[in-house]
Amino acid sequence: MSPTLALVFALLGTLCSFIYIFRSTKSRSNHNKNGQKLPPGPRALPIIGNLHMLGKLPHQNLHHLAKRYGPIMSLRLGCVPTIVVSSPEAAELFLKTHDLVFASRPGIQAGEYLSYGSTGIAFTPYGSYWRTVRKWCTLHLLSASKVEYFGPVRKTELGSLVESVKESAAARETVNLSEKVGELIEKMMCKIIFGRSNDDRFNLRSLIDQTMHLSGAFNISDFVPYLAPLDLQGLGRRLKRASELVDTVLEKIIDEHLQGTDAEDRKPHRDFVDAILLDMIAASFETSAVAIVWTFSEILRHPRVMVALQHELETVVGRNRLVEESDLSKLTYLDMVVKEGLRLHPVAPFLVPHESIEDIVINGYFIPKKSRILVNIWSMGRDRNIWSENAEEFFPERFINNNIDLRGHDFRLIPFGSGRRGCPGMHLALINVSLILAQLVHCFNWELPDGMLPDELNMTEIFGLSLPRATHLLAKPTYRLLGLAT
Ligand code: HEM
Fold it and tell me: Does residue 83 sit in helix, strand or coil?
């Protein structure tokens, strides 16, 4: 939290405390003003509500609070009623049993700036526009047949990555895996989404990383709208700047793509196309890279897992060729490693915030219309009641002999969400994540740089819409395949 923001909170907090003490004798914390019973939760201060309790890592702080108040917890963030869901049973109620009621998204400043007035998919409220755009993207980009069609693009780009890491290995250099994996996903996705290579003139990836960070921030302007003109955290200004930069890049790409067509024909659809393209690249660039880099960090911290994975790859693929997409279905240990990575390091710790479209009573608790719903899957991934005493440990074998999958049917593990708003890119994402991890582990042995021990690896997170590592992941490769691999 910046010093300015801390000061603002301190001042607001003092003011609120006075009002609160003055009024507290009359208030009943878990009932609204109509006497309806809200889910339990900590008392809220006037004006800021519980915003001051979120801290730098809200998913962790809300995880601790839920231990006290339960899996359906009520907060007030500024003036927005907020429900934090922290158990599989509760998640099923919100995302399956009452999916339709919670299928909308809140209108937030990030959506306004970055989704061109929420005309993309991810920040767009539930309704026919969202349904049409989502269907269109699924059909033209994300369906199983489209994903398969782009297999050769993945193969070429991944082959180049292996060659470049091989050169680093020969030169005994340390590789910045965060950078390498980020670049690879960017190259693959640009070819799939724009039909062309990424453009070295723009640093699109760094722009997207910024937008993911800004979009996930708890922006006071969204929660206390009358403070919005003050832009206390400076987020409004940064969002505007990021949106202008992204706009410039996308405009250039679209212009080049449409050269030769009638200029007048293009205008009406411009913002709509920008919004969808931006959603697609934002949803795909960082997410897959974050999942790969966290899982690889855990593999490096657990050499036993690296050895077991290499053993499986040698048995199924051998050491004379690269892993192919068609091998993936036979790599059962890899599948467990991917699940375990996403369990401990979900890319979107609160999914993308949902919003209720009408009043509803769930488990005897009143949830008002326009409540914001945060499903804390980070908390669910570390719950000892679900994952036993070793819940905090990276232990892929926990998935042996159980049928937990990632498709949103089993609410113990929902890194892609579930229901109407579940991730439409899951199939593509799982191929990218599994294939890249498999290739890195199959082609190379890895060690941490400068004699670092596995348990010395920094595992600090940065909170945003996604949850990347705070520091880049560095490691030293040694090539391990037999001659003719590439
Ligand atoms: C490992 C990679 C990925 C993870 C973990 C992931 C996870 C998620 C999650 C948790 C949501 C929100 C679900 C909810 O709110 O209930 C989501 C939404 C979305 N994802 Fe993904 N995603 C990944 C990759 C991708 C890819 C590759 C694409 C497409 C190219 C994509 C496209 C989308 C879109 C468009 C939405 C918004 C859906 C809507 O609001 O209707 N995602 N994703």
Answer: strand
Which residue's entry shows tokens 């994952």?
Answer: 387
485 is a domain residue: no
Which is nearest to 314 in space by CA: 330, 294, 336, 302?
330
ipTM above 0.85, yes or no: yes
Domain range holding 31? 3-479
CA of 455 to the centre of ligand 1 (A): 31
Q: Which residue CA neighbors atom 42 of ligand 1 most closely?
A: 425
Residue 486 lies in a domain: no
Q: How many domains does the chain have?
A: 1
User: Is 415 near ligand 1, meaning CB less than 6 Å away?
Assistant: yes
Residue 423 near residue 429 (C-beta atoms within 8 A)? yes
484 belongs to a structural domain: no
Distance (angstroms) between ligand 1 centre and the Cα of 247 equals 22
Q: 378 and 60 in contact (C-beta within 8 Å)?
A: yes
Residue 336 domain flag: yes
Give, for all 486 residues of the chain, the pLDDT tens digit: 455 555 555 555 555 555 544 454 344 457 777 788 999 999 999 999 999 999 999 999 999 999 999 999 999 999 999 999 999 999 999 999 999 999 999 988 888 877 666 678 888 999 999 999 899 888 888 999 989 999 999 999 999 999 999 999 999 999 999 999 999 999 998 888 877 777 666 778 888 888 888 888 899 999 998 899 899 999 999 988 888 888 888 777 777 766 655 555 555 455 566 677 778 888 888 899 999 999 999 999 999 999 999 999 999 999 999 999 999 999 999 999 999 999 999 999 999 999 999 999 999 999 999 999 999 999 999 999 999 999 999 999 999 988 899 999 999 999 999 999 999 999 999 999 999 999 999 999 999 999 999 999 999 999 988 899 999 999 999 999 986 544
Backbone angles phi, psi at 444, to 5 degrees: -135, 150
Whole-prediction pTM: 0.90
Q: Which atom of ligand 1 is nearest to the CA of 95?
A: 16
CA distance 208 to 213: 9
Residue 423 labeled ligand binder: yes
CATH classification at residue 243:
1.10.630.10
Pick from 295, 286, 353: nearest CA to 59: 353
